[in-house]
Predict the structure.
Amino acid sequence: MTAVHRPLSDWVVRVDPAPPSGTSPINDGDERADARSLPLFAEGWVRRAVVTGAGRAPALALHHPDAALTYVELDDNAAPLPIDEAGTELIDRIEASWPHPVFGPADLAATATLSREIRYLLLNRLGQEGTLSPEVFHVLPWAPVTELASAVVQLLDDAEPPTLSDGALDLGHWVTPAAIGVSGPLEQLYEGLTEPDPVLAARGGTALCAGLGAADPARFPAPVTAALAEVVRRLALVNPFLRHAAALTADRLTGVVTPGFVTLLDSDLPKAAATTDDRTVVRRLGDGGPLAVRAEVTAGGRLRVTVELAVEASAERERLLDAYQGAFAPVVVSAAGRIHHYWVALEARRRWLSGTLDIPAGRGRFEVGAEEAVTGVWGLSGVSAQELLPSLAAANRAGLQVWRTAAERAPLGHPLRQALRHLDQQGGTS
């Protein structure tokens, strides 16, 4: 792919020679195709800025001298992507060293002046096909993200947020080359707080913690990092179901090293443990907050994970449980290069919520983690019934009742309903 000039956009339109009338001009009639993967653009193309009509600005284009063909690149609205000669030369230089271009300070400054559409397309393609240093992603249009994050902080502080710009109210996909699952959940959280809609706010906050936890903080400019860290810090204060995940996320964004909610266990117990009456090895995970996790390996080859969330019964707890439609703590077990996801159903008691998972420990060493945020039944909608079934089978009677109650409130077709049907057909715990 090195030094091959291909479209940045999914859509192109031929402008020379013009396409026949009565046909769809986009991608020569194949609108569903990704122009970058079309065999037409395999080789022989050069960059140009082309004026497509009187009074119009130059647009990003590709020209094939031998075939005498010229195609203009289009945005999501099928409009030509505007660019000047300097911008065209910049993209030409970047593509000449594709997929491993080096961005010097001058290149970064020049890239930041390109339209947001072209910046997005350029970094999206490079993120998919090449390697980039994290600071290159700083040229994306981050200001609206910082603006919206600051407004969310004010809402979480019960303050009146300022009037937001159109860009902050609709973040779109412009920063997704740097991180997936950040801008969308941030918008969802804002909407949930302003409407107000507790379910939407809970879903947005949970998804934001997950998205930020998976992101590379070095790809965020410093003001964005600071604003997002403040959002999750506030979430940790106002929502005990999110506290441990939000606190971990804030620490990682700001470079604070914490032990986290992960421990290493071994199904081959030490001799001392094997000679005692209880014959178990126990690891406890916690950060002094409301969530505490106990992981226990028995000589019989079982792994028991007990989760306690210290939130006393109150009107606020009931509001959260209503918004979550049941509380489920994710647990991840990693062994021999394989990752298994489980969810512990938490039963509400007077001073806390708690639940237990009892599964085979497997052989040798394995890792148990509980860093993800407690989720609601809505957080399981994207999990298949087969993925949920082991968690249901591993629950005790109290936990299974939590699962059943949640299933009754879940929409028709929710995978939890399907998983319970499978469990009952297999003669699971009643």
Remarks:
- The chain is about 35% helix and 20% strand.
- The CA atoms of residues 7 and 36 lie 5 Å apart.
